[in-house]
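Render this sequence as a predicted structure.
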Amino acid sequence: MAERGVILEIDGRHAIVLTRGGDFRRVRLDRPGRQVGEEIVLPARRRLPAGAMTVAAVAALLLLTLLPASLLRAPAGTDRPPAGGDGLRVVAPEVLAYVSVDINPSVELGVDGAARAVTARALNRDAAALLGEVQFAGRPVGDVIADLALAAARHGFLAADRENAVVIATVPTAPEAPLPEAVRQQVEAGRRRVEAVLAEQSLAGQVGVLNAKSPRLREEAERAGLSVGKYLILLEARQEGVPIAADEVREQPIGRLFQARGLKPGEVIRRAEREEDFERLAERFGPRAGPGDEGDAELADRERDRTAPGSGGDRERGTGSRPASGERRRQDGQPGREAGDRGDEGERAAGGERRDEKKDQK
């Protein structure tokens, strides 16, 4: 039976299609006028005879042997030779941007100017399992993003019984450097393919693309133990008055985290997509001392106070609300009133026990 697939993207006479088996293929269209979303019959895969493959491999090896050494050396300024050596060397592609993909698993991809993946880093244990199944080196980053989403669905990280959220974030490696246009286009293609994966699997969910314009935001995210995408979501949530700690964002899927607070993850992600100045948010709301910093602890305390019975609900959710008196004393380095009250109660109880003992002795 002929293989069929749905057209996700059209590029001239070629198209990217999603097959019924969950694979992505680039095929030549049989005729003009094809539309995105249309299901087509895919051409059969062409395979070289075993003899032809052997001849091609020998020819490639011979070509490398006969090429002048000067053509194989690194161009000046692109790669430093090892100390004491001036021989042949391979020039690794330069990473010009990082792309993080957060499903929980969280993965970070280093990409070159042509938007091809050069490096991949698992940011948690679940991500390591996904990367073991996905080929990334030298592939367009949009394809890698789509394959990560497919692997996440196979492992149950994207499922029908949860609020699915996928956040893709980009950041250039050099200050003041714009994101390469090829990277931007590939990331948008990756977004569309993840949406197609969700639709193919009959899964509801939100897919967002966030742009961090400064590599300093990536450095701050690493200090907080977060991916760039989760760090930007943390900043957006805090701007909206949601007291959330970095530890919580690190350990939970984004969809589950906000759903547990009665919030719609899609709305938070869409607001973050519209944010123009994450550096400003980092100055106001970013963690300063990494995981477990005092700012995170204070936010967690405020959330517990807000949700405690009789606390008045959402009255303290605004970013400009004043902390309780106990919090102000803790910020000033003095014991909070709650701690003092507990200490007074303990002393009164101890004094009462001593008086009872004296009465018994009499």
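Summary. The longest helix spans residues 337-361. Confidence is low (pLDDT under 50) at residues 68-90, 289-295, 311-350.
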